[in-house]
Design a protein that fits this description.
The protein is mainly alpha-helical. Helix 2 runs antiparallel to helix 3, helix 5 packs across helix 13 and helix 10 packs across helix 11.
Length: 347
């Protein structure tokens, strides 16, 4: 199929509520076929992820549980997250045109990290109040969210506080990550992007994730590489239904469906392994980070029952691999720009 035919197939399929059994079947068939999985099956699976991300957000967990089970050959060892008895939201006018524009530019390697962030975040303008309310209601279905969101709005973290932490502590490791990479303590200005205008628990969740994204990297064992930014998006989506991550991963999956066959298994192995890691881990959203700055990471993991992510591939495979073809380099050019910003964007 040509790219245009696959695009039309996506636009038809994305409007359809694909049953869990169909998602499981598609994932299983693609996994068994590996790099020879058909473009049609890959695109149908990507359409199911986009449907959940934009039109039926409460189906995110059901969709990714089925994806992971079909791809990995075992059910997720976690309590199923219920869905709402609601019809999918209608597709807003202009959404898929803008969405596909990101896909095309990403496929061609024409996006840097900032433009990817801005353009994907801009898709949020197509979210109606009804859809946003649905996302907020959905968030309460995840462990720890209601309890965490009942707390006061987190105060800004000070770099001086982290610098005063002892060597080998989480606080000092966080400090060094921020300073060495010239990161911001909060990915985006919470006031400038008007997080407080979001319905609860989204306002609290997104405020905390602006602060905690790199803490999750450190504590859950994800490196700050392109592949692991994809992975941690799946992890945090599994943890509390982060809708921006769902949108981002759906775009990534469409690009993967259009990419050379060797890319696809790497992408799906990464997404599904991190999703399972997130579903089978305790709720990190409940960790009072300000109270554990002084503790080493291994002791924090032990105290909260956290295991580090076991990546199916070297974390820096995108940056270091010399085996990709010139065409694949265009595709991975999109992934290469994904070094930081995705999880701080409001749901």
């Amino acid at each position: 199929m040509s790219t245009e035919q696959l695009r039309n197939r996506f636009l038809t399929q994305v409007e359809t509520s694909i049953p869990r059994e169909r998602i499981l079947e598609l994932a299983s068939r693609c996994a068994k076929s590996g790099k020879k999985a058909t473009a049609e099956d890959r695109m149908d699976l990507a359409a199911a992820l986009a449907h959940a991300a934009f039109l039926a957000p409460d189906r995110t967990a059901e969709t990714y549980d089925a994806l992971a089970e079909g791809w990995r050959g075992r059910a997720v060892n976690a309590t199923p997250i219920e869905t709402f008895d609601r019809a999918p939201e209608p597709s807003p006018v202009g959404l898929w045109k803008n969405y596909w524009g990101i896909v095309e530019d990403g496929k061609n390697g024409d996006l840097d990290a900032l433009s990817v962030t801005q353009r994907t975040a801009a898709l949020g303008h197509f979210m109606t109040d009804k859809t946003l309310s649905r996302i907020a209601d959905m968030a309460h279905l995840y462990d720890g969210v209601s309890e965490a969101a009942a707390r006061d709005t987190p105060e800004l973290i000070k770099l001086s506080t982290l610098a005063a932490c002892p060597e080998n502590s989480l606080g000092r490791e966080f400090h060094d990550l921020i300073v060495d990479n010239m990161f911001d303590l909060e990915v985006l200005d919470r006031d400038a992007i008007k997080i407080n205008a979001l319905p609860e628990p989204l306002a609290w969740l997104n405020t905390r994730m602006l602060q905690a994204h790199d803490l999750w990297h450190i504590t859950a064992g994800y490196e700050t590489t392109s592949l692991h930014e994809i992975a941690i998006s799946a992890f945090q989506m599994a943890q509390f239904g982060h809708n921006y991550s769902a949108q981002f991963l759906s775009i990534t999956s469409v690009i993967g469906a259009l990419s050379p066959g060797r890319v696809y298994p790497v992408l799906m192995d990464t997404i599904t392994s991190a999703w399972v890691h997130g579903r089978e881990s305790p709720a990190l959203i409940l960790i009072p980070w300000e109270e554990v700055w002084h503790m080493p990471v291994d002791k924090i993991r032990l105290a909260y029952g956290i295991t580090a992510y076991e990546s199916p591939y070297p974390a820096n495979i995108i940056e270091k691999s010399q085996a990709f073809t010139a065409r694949m380099q265009k595709v991975t050019g999109f992934f290469h720009g994904l070094l930081r910003p995705f999880s701080g964007v409001p749901a």
